[in-house]
Amino acid sequence: MTNIENKVAFITGGTKGIGYGVAQILMAEGMKVAITSRSQKAADEAAAELNKSGKGEAFGVESDVRNFESQQAAVQKAIEKFGEIDLLFANAGLGHFATIEDMTPEQWSEVIDTNLTGVFYSVKAGLESLKKSKGFIITLSSLAGTNFFAQGSAYNASKFGLTGFSQAIMLDLRQYGIRVSTIMPGSVATHFNGHTPNEDDAWKIQPEDIGEMIASLMKLDARTLPSKIEVRPSMPPSK
C-alpha cells in the first residue's frame, strides 16, 4: 500500500461539493491540496475552512478551466507552494439541460468548454509535474457518460467525450508511470444544477465517499489501475 501523506493534490472546482469533500478526505490523510475557483475570494475562504482541520494543508488558487493560460498559471502557483503535483483531480463541471430546440449555442459551449476542454487544459497544464512525480490523474465523468437521456445533449456529449478522453490518455501516459482513472458517479449530494444539499439527500452518494475512493486509488500499488469506475447509490428511493 502506497503512503500518501504529504502528497500534493491539485483539485479544480474545489470550493464546494465533490471537490471540497475530496479535499477534506485527502487532508485527513495528511495530503496537501491546492483548490481552484474562478473567484480567488471563494478559493481563499474554502482553503481557510479546510485548514481548520489541523491536518494536511490547503491553498486556494484562482483559475478558469476554460482558459489554458489560466490553468498553466494556477498549476505553477501550486507547484511554487508545494513543490510538485502528485494528483490532478479534474472535478470542475456544470450542466445545462434542454431540448435541442431550446439549447442555446452559448449554453452548449459553456458545457463543452468546462466539462471536456477544461479537463484537457488541466491535464496539459499539469503534465510535466505529473511525469516527474509519476502521479495520478483522476477525472470526474458521470453515469451520463455512458447513458444518454432526454434534454441531455450537451451534458451527455461532454461526459461521453470525457470518458473517452480519459481512457485514451490512460493509454498514452502509462509509459511515464502516470495512472489515469475516471470516476463515473450517479446521484451525488452536491450543489449541481442549482440544487441545495439537504437531509433528503441522505440516500445519495456523498462528496466524502468520492474522496475515500480517490484516497484508496492512490494507495493501490502502482502495478494496479482501476481505469474506469462506475459508482451508484446502493439504495435509491423506490419510484
Word description of this protein:
GO terms for molecular function: oxidoreductase activity. It comes from Owenweeksia hongkongensis (strain DSM 17368 / CIP 108786 / JCM 12287 / NRRL B-23963 / UST20020801). Residues 7-192 form the Ketoreductase domain. This is Short-chain alcohol dehydrogenase. InterPro entries: KR_dom, NAD(P)-bd_dom_sf, Sc_DH/Rdtase_CS, SDR_fam. This protein is α/β, with parallel strands linked by helices. It has one domain (8-231): NAD(P)-binding Rossmann-like Domain (Rossmann fold, 3-Layer(aba) Sandwich). It is built from six helices and seven strands. The chain has helices at residues 17-28, 40-51, 68-82, 105-133, 153-173, 207-219, and strands at residues 8-11, 32-37, 57-62, 87-90, 136-140, 179-185, 228-231. It has a seven-stranded parallel sheet, sandwiched between helices. Helix 4 (105-133) links the parallel strand 4 (87-90) and strand 5. Helix 4 packs parallel to helix 5 (153-173). The termini are far apart. The mean pLDDT is 95.
